[in-house]
Amino acid sequence: MNYNKLTNFQIAELVKSELFQQGLSLRQCCEAFNAEYAEEIQAGFPRLDKDFVQRIKKNNFEINSERVSKLCDFLKIDVPKHQIQEESKLKKEFLQIEAAVQSNPLIEKQVRGLLKNIADIANASTLQGS
Question: How far apart are CA 108 and CA 114, in angstroms?
Answer without folding.
Answer: 10
